[in-house]
Inverse folding.
């Protein structure tokens, strides 16, 4: 048997979507081919500390966090090329630094697989650490992750490339907290924003946390204040009254490939965090399966073919323009009144890795295969990047 | 044979003693390891051991009628199993049961182990003696069985002795922590805002911490009702970070001087006084002493400090008048008592919270909050005034109020299978109770139910105040469930004064019984106000 590739699956993290990341990672680790890969689970606790240990494969373990973390091995990844894996941390920073010189203190890792949703994991932060450490990793790189995480920048970028997006405004927290009345007046004076309802949402968060559907001008300040509990930038969009969402997953495997599309079913007009992740979960129906448990129609047979083709075409185009890699999910909305289609957002690492779409696609892609291909792509990208010439010798300093 | 018999019985006795120590430790911990308060509780509740004593007496009597041999062995075995049965099958483990469980902190663990060591020492003395000598008329087991009657009563005393023995080391440790917390404070140097009040300080603290974080910058505030030097020390060491720009510290007055000690520890540049009332009157003796104790916070402010007081509370208004600082502001809901710098009116309660209009520095701001009741609005208004005085944009601060989260168990509305529950289960007081009744009366419901054990710690006014509130309750509730015995007579008296139909009164012994009643009799459309929860120390009987 060929030597198994040692893979670190990183999840959790300092994001409001911490728990969803854990669910996605547990699903992913179950699907990984154990004949090919040796998995090291790496849990990043809400306080930012990294841990590893076989207990992390058990869902029940997380109920004891943070108390149970003391039973795990604390690890870290240093931003230093050539270490070859994760470093075990001892009791103090001094001993941790000493540990660099001892091979027994290194957990060898061949490739890193980040399974994060939201800030610090899906926005280029951890990807930056991988780049500094010069290690291969799956998914999108630093600039792609960063721009797709910022909903406003992403929209504005795609807009200039003729992908239709709804108008959007971005408001900085410091401006709002300085003079909310002026900010409110400015918003309502902008074209298309005098009419309510409007959607107010955090610019850099997913999972519908902090989102408010504002129906009157008076509600606007508190909706902005709610966003600024979670993010420093708020995104404001007009609310499409008759809305249908269409999502598609795109992956790069011999070029951009599209999955079947899905139509998530919302009970309240906007998918709340509870609807996205908890509606089918909770005690009564067993543990939540994250995005995979959402009520949805996958590959609806009666969907207008033209609309579906548009979603797939825009999806592939956006994925390529943004330079994404791995598996992403692109969310579109259709204004049912006008029939117009708009790009809404791109998840650089979607909940449940969108495996539920790929298993229904033609040709069918099983989750195990999806992971295989993500790893293969990541190794190829790493090889290409490693072949780039970076050393031109000291010239200016001589 | 004799030795085996004694050892067997001693083993059962020690196991029983260990569990008893833990059971008492749970209450000793709730009384904050205070010897006088624990003794007072023991006396008030007559929480002496009964079951163990009855068993030990029975075994001792039988031991005198049995003379050695297999009979004694059988008796010892019966006693051991009896002790085991009492603590394992008739009582719950204090570490895992009860409203406030025994928290095995390092201090609690040390006390438990030392107390057990003392018990083991006590038990080993007669065992040791019995090994070497024996009275002429009795077997060693007789003597031991007799002494065990005394041993089963010792756990409360042993806990107190253990606590005293450990105190020097504990004090040294606490002093170290104290100095460490002071160092962290010096290095972080946040602007400290002290909050005190006979009630409302925890709610005001949470609201202020949240508003300051949203409007001005990272703010540190100890969660829940942590308001003692040790509690704050611990929180500072664990959660105060270098990026915190503000620190909101709740200062509890347990006696004259306690706020001063807190102010020496965390010197405030600004202070918020939510109320000066009659809560904890028993500890202070007179309303004037309460006022003096609370005033320590205003006295601790520098001359250029900022003092914000609740103008609706005569005591707090008096404090603002007597301890004027560079900026002294009054807030309130009722301007009949005098000038208010920040005022709220047009209060409306609904199932989504409270809405109101704030008047501040010549402008008005429409505000909404998910929190319910006048006290909550008053606390929020105090926090709003303080935040604005510290430089927050008033319109933004008002907008932030919509995103405040209710502090646990303080007039929180929950719905479960069609029944709405208004939980107001923390340290009820006359003002909070009145406000809760107002909300109960205002919200839409088919049937309004009040469930309460009444209020405590109101000194000699306790009976009168409970009676008065029961009269008010008669006008707000359709059914009243009176929990426990502490205030039962006063509440029934008040309901009777108001001619409340007796068939609409339910008396139960415990909170659990009240919930069982609600489970059986409650129906969709009911609104249940759960007013006060006395906790293990005061509610129900403690029987060992």
């Amino acid at each position: 048997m060929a030597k198994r590739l040692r893979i670190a699956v990183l999840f959790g993290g300092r994001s409001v979507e911490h728990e969803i990341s854990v669910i996605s990672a547990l699903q992913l680790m179950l699907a990984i081919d154990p004949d090919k890969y040796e998995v090291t689970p790496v849990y990043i606790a809400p306080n930012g500390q990294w841990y590893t240990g076989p207990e992390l494969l058990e869902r029940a373990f997380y109920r004891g966090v943070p108390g149970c973390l003391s039973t795990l091995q604390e690890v870290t990844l240093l931003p230093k090329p050539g270490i070859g894996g994760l470093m075990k941390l001892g009791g103090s920073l001094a001993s941790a630094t000493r540990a660099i010189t001892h091979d027994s203190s290194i957990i060898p890792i061949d490739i890193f697989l980040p399974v994060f949703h939201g800030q610090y994991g899906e926005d280029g932060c951890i990807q930056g650490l991988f780049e500094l450490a010069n290690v291969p990793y799956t998914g999108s790189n630093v600039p792609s992750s960063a721009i797709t995480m910022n909903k406003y920048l992403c929209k504005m970028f795609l807009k200039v490339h003729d992908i239709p997006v709804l108008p959007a405004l971005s408001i900085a927290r410091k401006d709002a907290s300085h003079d909310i009345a002026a900010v409110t007046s400015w918003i309502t004076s902008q074209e298309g924003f005098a009419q309510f309802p409007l959607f107010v949402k955090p610019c850099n968060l997913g999972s519908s946390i902090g989102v408010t559907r504002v129906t009157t001008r008076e509600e606007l300040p508190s909706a902005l204040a709610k966003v600024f509990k979670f993010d420093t930038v708020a995104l404001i969009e007009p609310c499409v009254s008759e809305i249908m969402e269409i999502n598609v997953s795109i992956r790069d495997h011999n070029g951009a490939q599209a999955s079947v599309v899905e139509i998530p079913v919302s009970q309240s007009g906007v998918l709340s965090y509870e609807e996205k992740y908890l509606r089918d979960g909770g005690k009564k129906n067993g543990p939540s399966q994250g995005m995979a448990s959402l009520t949805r129609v996958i590959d609806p047979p009666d969907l207008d073919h033209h609309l579906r083709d548009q979603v797939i075409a825009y999806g592939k185009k956006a994925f390529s323009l943004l330079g994404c890699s791995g598996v992403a999910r692109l969310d579109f909305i259709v204004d049912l009144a006008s029939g117009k289609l708009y790009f809404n957002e791109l998840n650089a690492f979607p909940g449940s890795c969108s495996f539920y779409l790929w298993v229904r696609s033609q040709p069918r892609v099983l989750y195990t295969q999806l992971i295989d291909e993500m790893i293969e792509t990541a190794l190829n990208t790493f090889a290409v990047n490693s072949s780039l010439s970076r050393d031109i010798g000291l010239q200016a300093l001589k | 044979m004799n030795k085996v018999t004694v050892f067997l019985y001693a083993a059962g006795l020690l196991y029983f003693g260990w569990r008893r120590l833990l059971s008492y430790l749970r209450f000793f911990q709730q009384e904050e390891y205070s010897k006088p308060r624990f003794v007072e509780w023991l006396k008030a509740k007559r929480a002496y051991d009964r079951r163990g004593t009855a068993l030990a007496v029975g075994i001792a009597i039988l031991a005198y009628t049995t003379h050695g041999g297999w009979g004694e062995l059988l008796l010892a075995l019966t006693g051991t199993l009896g002790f085991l049965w009492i603590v394992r099958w008739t009582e719950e483990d204090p570490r895992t049961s009860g409203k406030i469980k025994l928290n095995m902190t390092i201090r609690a663990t040390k006390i438990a182990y030392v107390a057990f060591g003392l018990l083991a020492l006590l038990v080993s003395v007669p065992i040791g003696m019995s090994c070497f000598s024996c009275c002429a008329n009795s077997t060693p087991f007789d003597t031991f069985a007799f002494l065990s009657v005394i041993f089963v009563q010792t756990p409360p005393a042993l806990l107190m002795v253990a606590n005293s023995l450990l105190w020097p080391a504990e004090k040294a440790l606490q002093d170290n922590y104290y100095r460490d917390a002071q160092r962290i404070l010096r290095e972080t140097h946040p602007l400290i805002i002290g909050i005190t009040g006979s009630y409302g300080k925890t709610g005001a603290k949470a609201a202020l911490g949240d508003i300051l974080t949203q409007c001005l910058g990272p703010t540190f505030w100890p969660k829940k009702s942590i308001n003692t030097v040790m509690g704050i020390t611990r929180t500072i060491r664990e959660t105060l970070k270098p990026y915190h720009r503000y620190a909101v510290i709740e200062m509890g007055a347990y006696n004259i001087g306690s706020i001063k000690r807190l102010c020496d520890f965390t010197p405030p540049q600004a202070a918020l006084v939510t109320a000066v009332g009659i809560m904890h009157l028993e500890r202070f003796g007179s309303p004037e002493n309460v006022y003096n104790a609370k005033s320590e916070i205003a006295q601790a402010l520098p001359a250029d400090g900022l003092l914000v007081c609740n103008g609706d509370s005569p005591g707090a208004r008096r404090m603002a008048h007597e301890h004027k600082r560079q900026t002294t502001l009054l807030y309130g809901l009722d301007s009949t008592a005098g000038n208010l710098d920040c005022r709220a009116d047009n209060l409306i309660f609904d199932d989504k919270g409270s809405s109101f209009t704030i008047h501040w520095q010549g402008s008005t701001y429409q505000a909404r909050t998910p929190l319910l009741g006048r006290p909550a609005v008053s606390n929020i208004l105090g926090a709003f005034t303080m935040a604005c005085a510290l430089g927050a944009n008033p319109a933004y601060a008002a907008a932030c109020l919509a995103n405040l989260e209710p502090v646990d168990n303080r007039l929180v509305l929950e719905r479960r299978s069609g029944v709405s529950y208004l939980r107001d289960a923390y340290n009820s007081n006359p003002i909070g109770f009145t406000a809760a009744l107002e909300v109960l009366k205002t919200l839409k419901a088919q049937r309004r139910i009040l469930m309460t054990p009444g209020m405590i710690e109101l000194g000699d006014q306790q009976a009168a105040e409970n009676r008065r509130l029961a009269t008010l309750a008669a006008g707000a509730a359709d059914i009243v469930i009176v929990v426990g015995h502490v205030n039962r007579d006063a509440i029934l008296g008040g309901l009777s004064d108001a001619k409340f139909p007796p068939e609409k009164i339910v008396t139960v012994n415990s909170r659990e019984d009240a919930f069982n009643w609600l489970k059986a009799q409650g129906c969709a459309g009911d609104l249940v106000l759960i007013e006060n929860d006395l906790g293990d120390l005061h509610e129900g009987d403690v029987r060992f």
